[in-house]
Structures are given as structure tokens and as C-alpha cells.
Amino acid sequence: GDSVTQMEGPVTLSEEAFLTINCTYTATGYPSLFWYVQYPGEGLQLLLKATKADDKGSNKGFEATYRKETTSFHLEKGSVQVSDSAVYFCALSEVNNNAGNMLTFGGGTRLMVKP
Amino acid sequence: GAGVSQSPSNKVTEKGKDVELRCDPISGHTALYWYRQSLGQGLEFLIYFQGNSAPDKSGLPSDRFSAERTGGSVSTLTIQRTQQEDSAVYLCASSPRGGGQTYEQYFGPGTRLTVT
To answer: pLDDT over 70 for what percent of chain A?
Structure first.
């Protein structure tokens, strides 16, 4: 079955540091890829997505590129802020008649940014 | 507009009791999903509804779990004879449609269930 593997946290960075959170996946077909973010005390929010190979998703300074050859979707940000402290989830979705667009999530990576 | 809402936000129950969790999706969204977020299992898919129909219930953890959706809107997830391993945050998400192409799923705030 499908699976998503992402680096374990916590990741602790100083403000303005460069961020990379690695994510790799296995899928039977041709999935869409997502990064979701969960801020403290809040629900899951879509951060960015990519639906085909070489697509780059971007939002709020975060970027991730769909790499089919390496089955990866690493999240990057050039300069993190304290407000970026959250848990980040990599996920994939394949269309399935019985499960719609169900999401398969990685284990989550907690990011802590210190001033 | 209004997002996905879930109730209750927190539920503490004794082992062996039944609980009912409610999800109100975004108006007009025909697809609805339930997920569970627990320390041991991470985020896992439970069940999907397209309209009132759930094509596959095999993602539910055990036969103590059931879910229904009425009027293409509100959904309830029922857990009978709760066990301590049922303690988790239960998340609901909705999207405009399911299948065909990838639509964004909008998540509710979750219901934190604690079984004592």
C-alpha cells in the first residue's frame, strides 16, 4: 500500500535559518502530494500541494517540488520565523473509488523556531 | 464562510461506554472523511462518504466503530464499548467532491477523546 516517510523531529532552528524537512513516498499509482501544517491548538491546514511531477508547490515562503525520480517532496523555507513553529505533515492522495481522495500521512515533524 | 465544525471538542468517557462524535462539513461539500490522530498510530484514515454513502468501511479499526451521514451533510462517528486504545483526536474533513481529481480537504478542529 501507499506510505509516506518523513524525518522525525523535533527540528529546532534559530530564527532566519534555512529549513528542510525531508519526505519520501511509495505509491502504486501517480499520487498528488501535500504538506499540511498544524499550529499549536489549531486544526490541520493545507500548506501547499503538487499534483504532477516537477510541479512546485509554494505558500507563505515554503516550497516543495514533486520529484518522481526520487519519490520525494521535501519542504524548504529560506528563512524561518518563530511563527512557523508547528507540526508539519507530508501526505499523498490517490484517487480511489472506495476512499475518494483519502490522505496517507507521514508521522509529522515538529518544528521549533527560537528567537 | 463557516468551516468544518466538530462536537464535542473534548470528551472524557469511562471504558465500556458508548460515544458519538459529530461532524458538520462545509455546506455543499459532498465528500466527507474521518481520520484519527493518535500517539502510536499517527494520522490514519477511517472512512469516506460520498453523499450519504460509504463505499468501504474496512478502514474502521474494529466492529465497535460505525459511521453514518444523513442528508448529505452531518456525519456521526459512533464508538461502542470504548476501550483505552480508542483515546485519540478524531478529525473530520470535507471537500467539494471525492474522486476524479484531487480536491483540497478542509479539516475541522477535531474531537479529543479520552477513555479512562
So the answer is: 100
Residue with cell 479529543: B112
Q: Is the pLDDT score of A97 beyond 80?
A: no
Nearest-by-CA chain A residue for B50:
A100
Interface check B100 vs A, CB under 8 A? yes
Chain center to CA of B56: 14
C-alpha cell at A15: 530564527
Q: What's the Rg (C-alpha) of chain B?
A: 13
Regions of chain B where pLDDT drops below 50: none
pLDDT tens-digit profile of B10-31? 999 999 999 999 999 999 999 9
Residue of A2, A59, A6, A56 whose CA lies nearest to A31: A2
Residues A53-93 have pLDDT tens digits of 999 999 999 999 999 999 999 999 999 999 999 999 999 99
What is the total residue count of chain B? 116
Q: Tell me how far apart the alpha carbons of residues B39 and A6 are, in angstroms, rounded to a whole number.
A: 16
Q: Which residues of A touch B55 (CB under 8 A)?
A: 97-99
Q: Is A31 exposed, middle or buried (0-12, 13-18, 19+ CB in 10 A)?
A: buried
Task: Return the number of CB contacts < 8 Å for A and B.
Answer: 67
Strands (E), A27-98: 32-38, 44-50, 56-59, 62-65, 75-77, 86-93
CA distance B89 to B84: 13
Beta carbons within 8 Å of B54's beta carbon, 6+ residues apart: B47, B48, B67, B69
